[in-house]
Amino acid sequence: MQEFGKVFVCYVQGRRESPWSMVVLNMTQEAAPSSQPRDLTVVPVEGNPTTVNLNWQPPRQPNGAITGQ
């Protein structure tokens, strides 16, 4: 079963908050996993204060083979 998802972000620091980003649509080939990704870390991109990289480990209970990252 294919699942469709939307992703959008907003940056919050103290009382400051950015506007929400544009919505990005995503389609998966599997149903949602029964547990969340693990060890999420946010890494700032040096020289670009508006960009970060998100890193995470796969969920402990995936719903199938993870074929991409």
UniProtKB/TrEMBL annotation:
InterPro entries: FN3_dom, FN3_sf, Ig-like_fold. Residues 32-69 are annotated as: Disordered. Residues 36-69 form the Fibronectin type-III domain. Residues 48-69 have a biased composition (Polar residues). It comes from the Eukaryota. PROSITE patterns: FN3 (PS50853). SUPFAM superfamilies: Fibronectin type III. This is Fibronectin type-III domain-containing protein. It comes from Dryococelus australis.
